[in-house]
Specification:
The structure holds 2 protein chains of 2 kinds. By secondary structure, chain A is mainly α. Helix content of chain A is 68%, strand content 5%. A two-stranded antiparallel sheet of chain A has the order 1-2. Chain A has a two-stranded antiparallel sheet with strand order 3-4. The longest helix of chain A is centred in the N-terminal third of the chain and has 32 residues. By secondary structure, chain B is an all-alpha fold. Chain B has a domain of 253 residues: ABC transporter involved in vitamin B12 uptake, BtuC. Helix content of chain B is 77%, strand content 0%. The longest helix of chain B is centred in the N-terminal third of the chain and has 30 residues. The radius of gyration of chain B is 23 Å and the shape is globular. The chains are: A mainly alpha, B mainly alpha. At the A-B interface, helix 3, helix 4, helix 11 and helix 13 of A face helix 5, helix 6, helix 12, helix 14 and helix 15 of B.
C-alpha cells in the first residue's frame, strides 16, 4: 500500500511538472513546424510568468494575470518574428537575445516595481485580503472517495485537485494536433517549415504564416509561464523558469515534433523531475542512481535520440533558414 | 545592389557602430523608464569602469574571461557552426584546472604547475565539446541542440562531483577546498608592485596576458595555417570544401575541440586567478555572453578583444549602477541582451539602409565628378 501511495504521489507530481513543459513544447512546435528555430521558449516563459504575477497582483484576478502573461509572451514572440522573418536574422541569436533580455528585464523592472529583490509580492495574502492565485479544481465526490482504496488514490489524489491550467494543458494537446494536422492553417504552417518556396508559389505569404505561427507560440508559452507564477507558486521570482524552456525544447525534439509523442516526452521528463525532487537518488535494479543523474537524464536521452541511437529525430526541413524571395 | 562594392570601413566600422547606437538608444529608454537619467548613468558607468585602477582592474578581469568565451564561439563560427556550449565547456575546464591545483598545488612550483593547468583547462573543455562534435560529424545531430543539452549535463555532473568528491567533509557550502596559495596565478597588483607600480587590489591577474596571446594565436591559426584555412573554407562553403578534399567530419571535430578548449581557458582567470576554488555556477552566464562578444567582434580575434573590453565595461560599469541608483544588478543583463538583439539578431535592420545610403551618396558623387570632367 505504501508503494502504491508513493507511486500515486510521484504520478501526481508528474502531472504538475509536465504541465509547463507541455504548454512550452506545444508553443515550440508551432514555431519549429513553421521553420523558426525557437530556443527562446525559456525567455517567453519567464516574461509571461513575471507579467502574469504582476497583473494578478495588481488586479487581484488570476485570469487577468493569464491575459497579461500571454500578451507579454506574444510580444516577445513577435519580436522573434520581426528579427528572424522580417530581417532574416539568425534564429539562434535572436532566441538567445530574447532569453537574456527576459532574464534581465524581469529582475530589473520587478525590483523597480516591488523593491523585493526582483520578486513580486505573494499573490495570496491574508493581510491584504488578496487571493490572486488559481484555485485547485476538486472533482465531485473526491472528498467522499478519498478513503476508498485504489480508486480513492487515483481519483481523489491523482486526477482531482489540480489547477485548471493542468487540465487545459492536456486538452491543448489534441487541440494543437487538430489545428496542425487537420486544418488549412496547419497544413500551410507545416508546409512553410518544409518547403517555403512551394508555399510562396501557391500564393500564400510565408511571412504571414510565420508571424501567425509565432503568435500561437507566444499564446501557448504564456500559459506555461503563468502556470509557474500564478498557480504552482503564488509569486514570481527571478529566473524561476530554471531551464524549463530548454527542457521543453528537448521534449519537443524527443517527441519528434509531433503532439502526442511530445506530450509523452513531457510526462517522462516530468516524472524524472518528480523522482529527483522526491529523493536523494533512486535505486534502479539494485544500483543507486545519484539524483543529479536523474536530473540530467532528459538531456542525456535527448542527445542519445539526436545521435540516432533510438529512432531518428528529423527536424522540419526548412528550419532555421531565412526565406528570401528570389528576384528576377 | 550587390554588384556595387561596399567598402570595408562601412561593413566593419559604420554598421557595427550603428547597431551599438541602436542598443544604446533602447538601453536609454529602459533607464529612463527606471527613473534614471541615461546620460548620468553612462557617466557613472564610464567612471565605474575606467575612473580608477580599481575599476580598470575589474573591467580587464571581465575582459579576460570574455576573450576566452568569445573566441570559443568565434573559431567554431568560422567553420559555419554555432557553439552554444561555452557555458558547460568552461565549467568542465574549471574541473581540470581545479584538479591540477588541488593535486599539485604546494608540491611543485608555479612555473611547473601553470603549464599543466593550462593544458588541463584546454583538454577538459575540449573533451566536453568532443561528444557534440562527434555526434554532429558522424551522426548529423544538430550541434546547437546538443551543446545546449551538454550545458545542463555539465551542471548536473559538476554538482555531483562537487558534493561527492571535492567538497571537504564538514563544510556546508558546495565548493571545493581552497587551492594551495603557491598554485594561484599572481594578481596584477602584486606583479606590478614588484616593479614599483602601485595599483588598487582587484581580481585582475596575469591570465590577461595569456588571453591576449591566445587571441593572437587564434588569428595565426585561422589565417596562417593550413588547418585554419580548412576551417574557413568549410565555413564559407562546406560542399565546396569537401570537393576540394577537406574532410568535413575531421574539421568539425578539430574545431570543436579547439573551441571547447578555449572556453576551458576561462577557468584559468576565474578559478586559478581569482576564486582559488571550484564553486557552483562559477561560469555565471559568461559562456553565453561569449556569443554576444563573438557577434560584436565579427568572429575575428582582434574584434573579439575590442568587444570583450566593451562587455567588460558593461559588466563592471553596470554593477556600479547598482550602488549609485539602487537599481537591480541584473540591469547589466538587460544591456547585454540589447547588444545581442541589435548587433546580432537585428543586424540587417541597419545594414540595408546604411548600404543603400552609401550607394546613393557615392553614385551622386561619381555623377558630379563625371559632369565636371565633361565640362572641362
Amino acid at each position: 500500500m505504501d508503494a502504491f501511495n508513493s507511486i500515486i504521489l510521484i504520478l501526481d507530481a508528474t502531472l504538475r511538472n509536465a504541465t509547463p513543459l507541455i504548454f512550452a513544447a506545444l508553443a515550440g512546435m508551432f514555431s519549429e513546424r513553421a521553420g523558426i528555430v525557437n530556443i527562446a521558449l525559456e525567455g517567453k516563459i519567464l516574461i509571461s510568468a513575471f507579467a502574469g504575477a504582476s497583473a494578478a497582483y495588481y488586479t487581484g484576478s488570476p485570469w487577468m494575470g493569464l491575459l497579461a502573461g500571454m500578451m507579454a509572451s506574444v510580444m516577445f514572440a513577435q519580436l522573434h518574428a520581426f528579427a528572424t522573418v522580417t530581417h532574416n536574422g539568425d534564429h539562434v541569436v535572436s532566441g538567445l537575445a530574447i532569453n537574456i533580455l527576459a532574464a534581465g528585464l524581469t529582475a530589473a523592472v520587478g525590483n523597480y516595481w516591488f523593491s523585493q529583490g526582483g520578486n513580486t509580492p505573494n499573490l495570496v495574502s491574508r493581510a491584504d485580503e488578496l487571493n490572486a492565485r488559481f484555485e485547485p479544481i476538486v472533482f465531485p465526490f473526491a472528498e467522499a472517495l478519498a478513503d476508498v482504496p485504489i480508486i480513492g488514490g487515483i481519483y481523489s489524489e491523482l486526477l482531482s485537485g489540480h489547477y485548471i491550467l493542468v487540465y487545459l494543458a492536456f486538452l491543448a494537446v489534441p487541440l494543437c494536433w487538430f489545428v496542425l494536422f487537420r486544418t488549412r492553417f496547419g497544413l500551410r504552417l507545416r508546409a512553410t517549415g518544409e518547403n517555403p518556396q512551394a508555399v510562396d508559389t501557391a500564393g500564400i505569404s510565408v511571412t504571414k504564416v510565420r508571424y501567425l505561427a509565432l503568435l500561437v507560440c507566444g499564446l501557448l508559452a504564456g500559459f506555461a509561464g503563468v502556470y509557474l507564477a500564478v498557480a504552482l507558486t503564488a509569486q514570481f521570482s527571478p529566473n524561476m523558469s530554471a531551464g524549463k524552456g530548454y527542457m521543453a525544447l528537448a521534449a519537443l525534439i524527443f517527441g519528434k515534433w509531433r503532439p502526442k509523442t511530445t506530450m509523452l516526452a513531457c510526462l517522462l521528463f516530468g516524472a524524472l523531475q518528480a523522482i529527483a525532487d522526491r529523493s536523494q537518488g533512486a535505486i534502479i535494479l539494485g544500483f543507486e542512481v545519484p539524483v543529479q543523474l536523474v536530473e540530467a537524464l532528459p538531456y542525456i536521452l535527448t542527445v542519445v535520440l539526436l545521435g540516432g541511437f533510438i529512432g531518428r529525430a528529423v527536424a522540419p526541413k526548412a528550419i532555421g533558414k531565412p526565406y528570401v524571395k528570389e528576384r528576377a | 545592389m550587390s554588384q556595387h562594392r561596399i567598402p570595408a570601413w562601412i561593413t566593419v566600422g559604420v554598421i557595427p557602430l550603428a547597431n551599438v547606437a541602436m542598443a544604446a538608444l533602447a538601453a536609454a529608454l529602459v533607464f529612463w523608464y527606471l527613473n534614471i537619467n541615461p546620460l548620468e548613468a553612462l557617466q557613472a558607468m564610464v567612471y565605474g569602469a575606467f575612473g580608477s585602477s580599481y575599476g580598470w582592474g575589474y573591467t580587464l578581469y571581465y575582459m579576460t574571461s570574455y576573450i576566452f568565451t568569445g573566441l570559443a564561439v568565434a573559431v567554431v563560427f568560422q567553420a559555419g557552426m554555432f557553439n552554444i556550449g561555452g557555458e558547460g565547456q568552461a565549467y568542465i575546464g574549471a574541473l581540470g584546472v581545479g584538479l591540477v591545483c588541488l593535486g599539485l598545488g604546494g608540491h611543485v612550483p608555479l612555473f611547473v604547475l601553470l603549464p599543466i593547468s593550462i593544458i588541463a583547462a584546454f583538454v577538459f573543455g575540449g573533451l566536453w565539446a568532443l561528444i557534440p562534435a562527434w555526434l554532429q560529424a558522424k551522426r548529423g545531430s544538430h550541434i546547437v541542440i546538443t551543446t545546449i543539452m551538454f550545458n545542463f549535463i555539465a551542471a548536473s555532473m559538476m554538482n555531483y562531483i562537487l558534493i561527492n568528491f571535492l567538497k571537504p567533509s564538514g563544510t556546508m557550502s558546495v565548493e571545493s577546498a581552497v587551492f594551495d596559495p603557491s598554485s594561484w596565478i599572481p594578481k596584477m597588483h602584486e606583479a606590478l608592485a614588484l616593479i614599483g607600480i602601485s595599483i588598487d587590489r582587484s581580481p585582475l591577474n596575469l591570465s590577461m596576458f595569456w588571453a591576449l596571446f591566445v587571441a593572437f594565436a587564434v588569428w595565426f591559426f585561422l589565417w596562417r595555417t593550413r588547418w585554419g584555412y580548412e576551417v574557413r573554407a568549410m565555413g564559407s562553403n562546406a560542399s565546396g570544401a569537401q570537393y576540394g578534399g577537406i574532410s568535413i567530419p575531421k574539421t568539425v571535430i578539430m574545431i570543436m575541440i579547439i573551441g571547447g578548449g578555449l572556453a576551458g581557458f576561462m577557468a584559468l582567470n576565474v578559478v586559478q586567478g581569482e576564486a582559488h576554488q571550484i564553486k557552483l555556477n562559477l561560469v555565471n552566464q559568461m559562456g553565453f555572453t561569449g556569443i554576444a562578444v563573438a557577434l560584436m567582434g565579427r568572429n575575428h580575434p582582434f574584434g573579439i578583444v575590442i568587444a570583450s573590453l566593451l562587455f567588460g565595461f558593461l559588466t563592471q560599469g553596470g554593477s556600479e549602477l547598482q550602488f549609485e541608483y539602487s537599481v537591480d544588478a541584473r540591469i547589466v543583463v538587460v544591456l547585454q541582451g540589447l547588444v545581442i538583439l541589435f548587433s546580432g539578431a537585428l543586424q540587417n535592420m541597419m545594414k540595408h539602409p546604411i548600404e543603400r545610403l552609401y550607394l546613393r551618396l557615392s553614385s551622386n558623387r561619381k555623377k558630379t565628378s563625371e559632369e565636371l570632367a565633361a565640362e572641362a
